[in-house]
């Protein structure tokens, strides 16, 4: 079966910083796939290379068999991307934002209208139809970002830190929506630091450190029977507070 996302030898540097240093990935269709790694490991850069938002210095990526760089528009039709901070238009309502995103994608107005109505309902964004995005809570921003990414019915949904800063209720809503999308045959790929979410949701996981793949496999293979968090810390190298450091934090105030 053609991989949902395939990367071969991806490299990307920003000046002297090698953000992605030869990443190979093969993400099977229909999976829930986690990309884990510490801050600055290269997760966001990898996602941007895979989704055609950033051109690699070397290597190739393809989406559902379509090479990303020779034909970025065709590849982007198969992808929905929800960045960490979705780029939205603050002066639009949720419905207007969906309509605008659909028109930009060249979709027919009646198809946009029908899908937007369903999406706004599933995303729980119908209660305040006149509210501008500028006044949205973070949970609402994440939900409308997801709506924009799903509108054109992509085969692969890619999300950067979808659970960052969400409260438990919104985390559950996001999880349910992703499960719903996957149940319909979609592939979900997301980057996260939150190991218990990755462990709970994902079929497979890759752990990235310094722009390289440190481990890849099913969650059971990567975690070796331990909590994924412990395997993660061992793989990326934990940091102990030096003995004797910050003693003043636990002593009584002077
Ligand atoms: N546009 C850019 N210009 C310069 N350096 C960048 C740029 N984007 C990323 N980097 C650097 O590349 C490295 C990888 O960054 P990236 O954002 O991909 O990591 P990350 O794993 O997503 O981190 P985090 O979990 O903190 O979001 C970091 O050292 C970062 O500072």
Automatic annotation (TrEMBL):
PROSITE patterns: ABC_TRANSPORTER_1 (PS00211), ABC_TRANSPORTER_2 (PS50893). GO terms for biological process: response to antibiotic. InterPro entries: AAA+_ATPase (IPR003593), ABC_transporter-like_ATP-bd (IPR003439), ABC_transporter-like_CS (IPR017871), ABC_transporter_ATP-binding (IPR050763), P-loop_NTPase (IPR027417). One of its GO terms (cellular component) is plasma membrane. Its main location: membrane. Residues 5-235 form the ABC transporter domain. Keywords: Antibiotic resistance, ATP-binding, Nucleotide-binding, Transport. It is a peripheral membrane protein. It is found in: Cell membrane. GO terms for molecular function: ATP binding; ATP hydrolysis activity. It comes from the Bacteria. This is ABC-2 type transport system ATP-binding protein. It comes from Propionicimonas paludicola.
């Amino acid at each position: 079966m053609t991989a949902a996302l395939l990367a071969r030898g991806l490299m990307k540097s920003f000046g002297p910083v090698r953000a992605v240093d030869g990443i190979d990935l093969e993400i099977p269709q229909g999976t829930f796939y986690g990309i884990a790694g510490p801050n600055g490991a290269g997760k966001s850069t990898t996602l941007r290379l895979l989704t055609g938002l950033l051109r690699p210095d070397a290597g190739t990526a393809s989406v559902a068999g379509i090479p990303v760089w020779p034909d970025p528009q065709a590849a982007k039709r198969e992808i929905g991307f929800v960045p960490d901070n979705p780029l939205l238009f603050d002066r639009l309502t949720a419905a207007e934002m969906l309509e605008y995103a659909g028109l930009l994608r060249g979709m027919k107005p009646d198809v946009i209208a029908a899908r937007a109505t369903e999406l706004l309902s599933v995303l729980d964004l119908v209660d305040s139809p006149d509210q501008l995005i500028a006044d949205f809570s973070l949970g609402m921003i994440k939900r409308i970002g997801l709506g924009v990414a799903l509108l054109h019915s992509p085969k692969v949904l890619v999300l950067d830190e979808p659970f960052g800063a969400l409260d438990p209720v919104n985390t559950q809503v996001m999880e349910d929506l992703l499960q719903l999308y996957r149940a319909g045959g979609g592939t979900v790929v997301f980057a996260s630091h939150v190991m218990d979410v990755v462990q709970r949701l994902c079929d497979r996981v890759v752990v990235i450190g310094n722009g390289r793949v440190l481990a890849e496999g099913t969650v059971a293979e990567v975690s070796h029977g331990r909590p994924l968090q412990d395997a993660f810390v061992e793989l990326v190298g934990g940091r102990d507070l030096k003995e004797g450091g910050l003693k003043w934090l636990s002593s009584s105030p002077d």
